[in-house]
Write a structure and sequence with these properties.
Membrane topology: Multi-pass membrane protein
Strand order of the largest sheet: 1-2
CATH class: Mainly Alpha
Number of helices: 11
Transmembrane segments: 6-28, 62-81, 90-111, 141-161, 190-213, 269-290
CATH topology: ABC transporter involved in vitamin B12 uptake, BtuC
Pfam families: BPD_transp_2
Order of helices and strands: HHHHEEHHHHHHH
Helix content: over 70%
Subcellular location: Cell membrane
GO molecular function, one term: L-valine transmembrane transporter activity
């Protein structure tokens, strides 16, 4: 049972990690907690459903949904957050919560408030069969797909951040936004790219969750977003590797809590792990302590 719970927890943790990366990238660049990010995750699932309903094949529907989610993330930045760049942080935080509620209600208007199934006919028939079976552990093809997609996206994100000019600009903004602007970096363009990249990854997480659990609903982004934010804090807010590690740790803790205690306690166990880590290491698992200058 332990081995199977670890496999299931690792699967869930990778999904949390993909969402948490969006939180931590935006926070790292502009120190904003984008609470509407969970709704981008939700929209990824519903947009994929809509594109499949139009007769598009699954791979094309997924790509279009990620591009649409990236565009929505950019629009959020331009409309809701950019005008508040110089405002107190509380104003941006309240705006983020308001945009979250707005997107939830918009989804209810467009797709209805009832849960909808993922169109299973769009998936290959063998996805319902086990991919690997050893000892008492079974790994499905759906889980294998989640592993592959998550690893590819995370490796790709790491390459973008460390090996490209825009990644260098993102790291410069995270260090000192004023100095970066004085060095000729287009601050707004880099922030917009950060929103687009994080939103695309969040949408991919929503797509995989809807495929994995065969359901989607307009409020699915709320709890997933809160947990992903907890994962980002657990790993060290502002640290992309920390967000990835925090997501995996949180997913495993939640699954073990559900398996060995009781399903209703799964959320409590996950947050208890986060609280303990923060008590003994306030900067998170991979975060760095920052001293505020007077």
């Amino acid at each position: 049972m332990l081995e199977q719970q670890l496999v299931n927890g690792f699967t869930l943790g990778l999904i949390y990690a993909l969402i948490a990366v969006g939180y931590t990238m935006v926070y790292g660049v502009i120190e904003l907690i984008n609470f509407a990010h969970g709704e981008i995750y939700m929209l990824g699932a519903f947009l994929t459903l809509s594109f499949i309903s139009m007769g598009l094949p699954l791979p094309l529907a997924v790509v279009l949904a990620m591009l649409a989610a990236a565009a929505i993330g950019v629009l959020l930045d331009i409309v809701a957050y950019r005008p508040l760049r110089e405002a107190p942080r509380l104003a941006a935080l309240i705006t983020a919560i308001g945009m979250s509620i707005f997107l939830q209600n918009l989804a209810m208007i467009i797709w209805g408030s009832r849960p909808l199934p993922f169109p299973r006919q769009a998936l290959p028939a063998f996805f319902s069969e086990p991919a690997l079976t050893f000892s008492d552990v079974t790994i499905s093809w759906m889980q294998m797909l989640i592993y592959a997609v998550a690893v590819v996206l995370m490796v790709g994100l790491n390459l973008v951040i460390t090996k490209t000019r825009v990644g260098t600009a993102m790291r410069a903004l995270a260090q000192n936004q004023t100095a970066a602007a004085l060095m000729g970096i287009n601050v707004n363009r880099v922030i917009t790219f950060t929103f687009a990249l994080g939103s695309a990854m969040g949408a991919m997480a929503g797509i995989m969750v809807s495929m994995y659990y065969n359901t989607m609903y307009p409020t699915m982004g709320y709890l997933a977003g809160v947990k992903a934010f907890a994962a980002a804090v657990l790993g060290g807010i502002g640290s992309v590797p920390g967000a990835m590690l925090g997501g995996v740790v949180l997913g495993i803790a939640e699954t073990l809590g559900a398996g060995y205690l009781s399903s209703p306690y799964r959320d409590g166990v996950a947050y208890a792990v986060m609280i303990l880590v923060i008590i003994f290491r306030p900067s998170g698992l991979l975060g760095r302590a920052v001293t505020e200058k007077a």
